[in-house]
Amino acid sequence: MGGPIPAEALEAVRLATDIVQLVGEYVRLERRGKNYVGLCPFHAEREPSFTVSPDKQIFYCFGCGVGGNVFKFLMLLENLTFPEAVHKLAERAGIALPRFAGAGEEPKSRPEEEAWEVNALARDFFRQCLKRPEGREAREYLERRGISSYTQELFQLGYAPPGWDNLAQFLSSRGCPVKLAVDLGLLAVGERGRPYDRFRHRLIFPICNAQGRVVGFGARVLDESQPKYLNTPETPVFSKGKVLFGLHLAKGAIREKGYAIIMEGYMDVITAHQHGISNAVASLGTSLTQDQARLLSRYTRRVVIAYDSDAAGVAATVRGLDLLQQEGFSVRVAVIPQGKDPDEFIRHQGRERWNELVERSLTLLDYKLDWAVKKGEGLSAALAQVLPNLAAMEGELERQEAIKHVAARLSVSWEAVKDALRRYSAEAGKKWAKSDKNVKRVHTIVENTPLNAELLLVRLLLRYPEYLPLVQQELPGFSPHDPDLSRIYFFLCRQGNPAGWMNELGERGQDLLGYLLVEDLPLEDPARVVRDLIANLRQRARRLERERLIQELAEAERLGDEGRVQRVLSRLQELLPTGRGEN
């Protein structure tokens, strides 16, 4: 495009474009007085400083100082020239503008527009193939998966027929250059330089950007061949880590419901939308990226992750949790039972059960702690999982409540968690543990901190032996679960000089005692910490006893032992919370 655009045409486009509606397609806006505010799309921030004025039809960010009108906004956000932004907004408003060309030049479209047009041609070709006789196997597959014809049309599903050059011949008949089709990942070039179809005998999932333009494709086999899924490679208009599958269909529901559900695969999202769960999107793989998180932040800051419950899905969920929190999201996790994926669960259990699952979704901290426990990790490793999340919390009240919650979940004192967080923050500078080196550093900090309630109590008694009678009175028969720590406590009760116990302990016990005696323990009120630990250990003992009795009750009911059932119920009644902070 070249040559000037008439001033009256510019003004017509500007007046026809409401800046609040335009910006609202990219940024989640909230009304504040006469203006709208949101998180700036041009720089990372957690508190909104980006302001849109409907009266003046301008935007301005008080954080980075960027401002302007509708043309400037689109130029910055989509990296367009001024004429390109004008023509795009004119098309959006239904205003016809002439396309000017320089001397000796033919009018030409942007490379992105050419790519979108060719991808749209390929989508239409695949769509028609699905409806033809050769698409019968693909249609039967979709029928078995319960995907209706309406949903197939909604997601524009298609079929790539067998053979090596079906799409190649079609695109050639439409005048598409071979090089462009190769650059877009639709065709590949063989050893002899001949182009051939990349996708063959596969179900096709068009991948769209947030504006609904086809930028790439996913393809699933219909037999046992490998790979099971094949995606468009990186192209000038497609990067797997920068798009969310289904977002163009879900963004309205995300805004309406106030949160997004992030799933893993194409079929998860398609099945969800068919069942009315229309705020679902997929991350196109197992790892959520920063670009995807920032894309989603235009529509919401609340997310429920619902990845598969297999090992890979769990690991991806944990990575996604940290990244989303880092980007300022409120995050929860829907835990799908019995190793199912969202697609299978929704098809068999239905929408209502799915909504119940989402309502019971876990917080970021609870999910990570549960995951650590299921992996069989120790206390140190479990706390290491959540220290970065605690450190990343900006609100002091939120952090203090989270510290108390983590302490209760791990049956440790809040002082212990707070001390571990202090050490982590000082050592890691509140940076996220993104590398193996940083993860090891977190574990080292955790391991050098008195985390376990029993460990902290024994450590306190070594430093303040005057509290030993109180512990013996309040916790009769107390014995730490760790055998070496138990032996140290036994020697402590015998009193005497701890240095004399060394020879009676094994190598690990000696190391443990040395650590307990040497490591500094800065506490302002040790008496209160001792009382807190006693209460903590009592609560844990009661909880463990309740769990044991519940198992015993189930066994007694299975055997039909009515007398035993009544005895267990009576004991359980005694262990019910009293309302004085016990649980």
Throw out a few tags for this protein:
583 residues, alpha+beta, DNA primase DNAg catalytic core, N-terminal domain, 5 domains, 5-stranded mixed sheet, 25 helices, 16 strands, 52% helix
What does the model show?
This protein is α+β, with helices and mostly antiparallel strands. It has five domains: 7-93, DNA Primase, Chain A (Alpha-Beta Complex), CATH 3.90.580.10; 111-238, DNA primase DNAg catalytic core, N-terminal domain (Alpha-Beta Complex); 242-373, Dna Topoisomerase Vi A Subunit, Chain: A, domain 2, CATH 3.40.1360; 454-522, no CATH class; 526-574. The protein is built from 25 helices and 16 strands. The protein has a five-stranded antiparallel β-sheet with strand order 1-2-3-4-5. Strands 13-12-14-15-16 form a five-stranded mixed β-sheet, sandwiched between helices. Helix 13 (311-326) links the parallel strand 14 (302-305) and strand 15 (330-333). The radius of gyration is 31 Å and the shape is elongated. The protein starts with 6 loop residues before the first helix and ends in a 9-residue tail after the last helix. The model is unreliable at 100-109, 429-451 and 578-583 (pLDDT under 50).
